[in-house]
Automatic annotation (TrEMBL):
The lineage of its organism: Bacteria, Bacillati, Bacillota, Bacilli, Lactobacillales. This enzyme scavenges exogenous and endogenous cytidine and 2'-deoxycytidine for UMP synthesis. This is Cytidine deaminase. It catalyses: cytidine + H2O + H(+) = uridine + NH4(+); 2'-deoxycytidine + H2O + H(+) = 2'-deoxyuridine + NH4(+). The keyword Disulfide bond does not apply. The keyword Hydrolase applies. It comes from Pseudolactococcus paracarnosus. Belongs to the cytidine and deoxycytidylate deaminase family. GO terms for molecular function: cytidine deaminase activity. Keywords: Hydrolase, Metal-binding, Zinc.
Length: 130
C-alpha cells in the first residue's frame, strides 16, 4: 500500500469521529511522529464558535501532551471536492512544532492530494526565539 493511501485512510478515519453539529464539515488529520506513532485529530466544534478546535491542532496537541514533539509529516482530509487547506491558526501551530520542510499532504474526499510543506503553507511565519 502506498504511503499516500495509508495517510489518506488515517486522516479520513480521524474525520469520522469529528464533532461538527454546527458546520457539518468534518475534518481529520493524521500526524506521523519521527518515532513512527500516528496521532489522529478531528475538528471539535463548540456553540461559541471561537472555541472550536481544528483537526490539525487536535493531532498536534495530542502528540505534545503525550510527550512527542518531533514529526515527519501530516495528512489533512476534508469532505471537499479539492484538497483541503489548514486555517491560519493551524498553520502557525504547525510552524511551532514542525520543520519548514516537513511534508503536508492535503486530501479531498476522493483522495486527490496536494503535496506541500509547512514552510510553503506559511512563509515568513513567527519563529520561537531560542
Amino acid at each position: 500500500m502506498s504511503e499516500d493511501i495509508e495517510l489518506f485512510k488515517q486522516a479520513r478515519e480521524a474525520a469520522s469521529v469529528a464533532y461538527v453539529p454546527y458546520s457539518h464539515f468534518p475534518v481529520g488529520a493524521a500526524l506521523i511522529a519521527k518515532n513512527g506513532l500516528v496521532f489522529q485529530g478531528c475538528n471539535i466544534e463548540n456553540a461559541s464558535f471561537g472555541l472550536t478546535n481544528c483537526a490539525e491542532r487536535t493531532a498536534i496537541f495530542k502528540a505534545v501532551s503525550s510527550g512527542v514533539s518531533e514529526f515527519d509529516m501530516i495528512g489533512i482530509y476534508g469532505e471537499t471536492d479539492e484538497p483541503i487547506s489548514p486555517c491560519g491558526a493551524c498553520r502557525q501551530v504547525l510552524t511551532e512544532f514542525c520543520s519548514d520542510d516537513m511534508p503536508v499532504w492535503l486530501f479531498s474526499k476522493s483522495g486527490d492530494v496536494k503535496k506541500t510543506t509547512v514552510g510553503e503553507l506559511l512563509p515568513y511565519h513567527f519563529k520561537k526565539i531560542t
